[in-house]
Design brief:
Largest sheet: 3 strands, antiparallel
Number of helices: 5
Number of domains: 1
Structural class: mainly alpha
Radius of gyration: 18 Å
Number of strands: 3
Length: 146
């Protein structure tokens, strides 16, 4: 059996809201899928100690060649969201510094924005680590009791 990337992408789509991505999904679904798969694949190294081989994939079919369970899909969707947050943090910083005038009354407080976004990423990483610990512990219990 296998697990399509779309299972993970769909699980992650409810974890964040981005009007640009929503618009891209409607206007150019292929580009949206490519971007989401990019976040998924760059997030794979965050999932340490997965019992299944995440490197056993078929890029052409857009799938993992292993059947992932609900916990594995949930953890991977969190990895995708963290990579999306990181991308947006870097992208926002670059755009704000280019678009804002120094004397503008609408100028964003970049240090506060940076701090808030980094805190959000840090919280998501803590939650991800908790989920991976729970996942590893439940697998350990299953092996011991078998």
């Amino acid at each position: 059996m296998s697990t399509p990337y779309s299972d993970v992408i769909n699980a992650s789509a409810i974890k964040f809201k981005d009007f640009r991505f929503d618009k891209l999904k409607v206007e150019d679904p292929a580009s949206w899928t490519t971007r989401m798969e990019g976040f998924l694949l760059t997030g794979l190294p965050l999932f340490r100690n997965c019992k299944k081989s995440l490197s056993d994939r078929d890029e052409t079919l857009g799938q993992f060649n292993e059947t992932l369970d609900f916990d594995e899909i949930d953890i991977l969707s969190d990895c995708l969201v963290i990579k999306w947050l990181d991308y947006n943090l870097n992208n926002t910083l670059n755009l704000n510094s280019l678009l804002q005038e120094k004397n503008s009354s609408k100028r964003v407080n970049e240090p506060a924005m940076l701090s808030a976004n980094r805190l959000l990423i840090s919280q998501r990483l803590e939650e991800l680590n908790r989920k991976m610990s729970d996942y590893g512990f439940s697998n350990y219990i299953t092996e011991v009791t078998s």
